[in-house]
Write a structure and sequence with these properties.
Blueprint (H helix, E strand, L loop, with lengths): L1 H16 L4 E7 L6 H14 L4 E6 L6 H4 L10 H4 L9 E2 L5 E3 L13 H15 L4 E6 L5 H9 L2 E6 L3 H17 L5 E8 L2 H19 L3 E8 L2 H9 L3 H4 L4 H18 L10 H9 L3
Amino acid sequence: MRDQAESLRRRLNKQHRGSSAKVLSVISGKGGVGKSNFALNFSISLSQKGHSVLLIDLDIGMGNIDILMGFTADRTIVDLFNKQLPIHEVIKSGPNGLSYVAGGTAFNKLFEFDNDRLQVFFNEFEKLLQEYEYIILDMGAGLSDVSFRFLMASNEILVVTTNEPTAITDAYASIKYINSQNNEIPISLLLNRSRNLSDGKQVITRLSNAVKQFLKKDTRLLGIIPDDPEVSKAVSQQIPFIINNPNSRASTSIREISDRFVSGEDQEWNSQKGTSFVDRLRKLLFER
């Protein structure tokens, strides 16, 4: 009953606003940069500010959002297809009002599902667009054919990298490929595990300038998260660091980043508009 009441409350809030959820994809050029940890703590920070947020783990084969929270999910997004379950039966409650859907290892077989099952998924996902303000997709480091189409249907892409040369190179390569397929999707940049603020600003600014110069693409600089031992401590305890130590440097940075993100929304930062996420995804999935 509590879950049904919460679902109804979100639906009424969305109807009152008359808007559809914004779908954000969080990616990284390579693994090991803290992408999923950022996606989780960023989502919680938005929830703490009163926004309705759904985090969906689409990191095929490496999904760990539930583990980072110390939970074990009994259902995943794949169950939407295999068991034809309603979307709300796979949504779980996380901390501070966050909703989440755990990842499934068979999600990369989406093309193998028949059109009827896909249509069920589209119908179920359409409901979510009316209930949440933000739907955040934690994408895998390496993009499969299926996950890439989810990425291209998103309203905005958040690219997480570190100051390691290979991470920067891979982030640039990912942006280059995305831009070659669709140069209208807004892209924001975030630097994780920065040793100090000054170096971090130089690294992320160089990446932004390179994207601008060579790809003719403007990006938004969301922020820098310091290399903070409290993050590793929180991961080992399976508690999101913004909850485990709200006063840590990483937690402070996450709150600043979510503030900056929401502020950018108020300033009408460009977003892929027009058709809905589901309409774009349906078109992309059937282009095969």
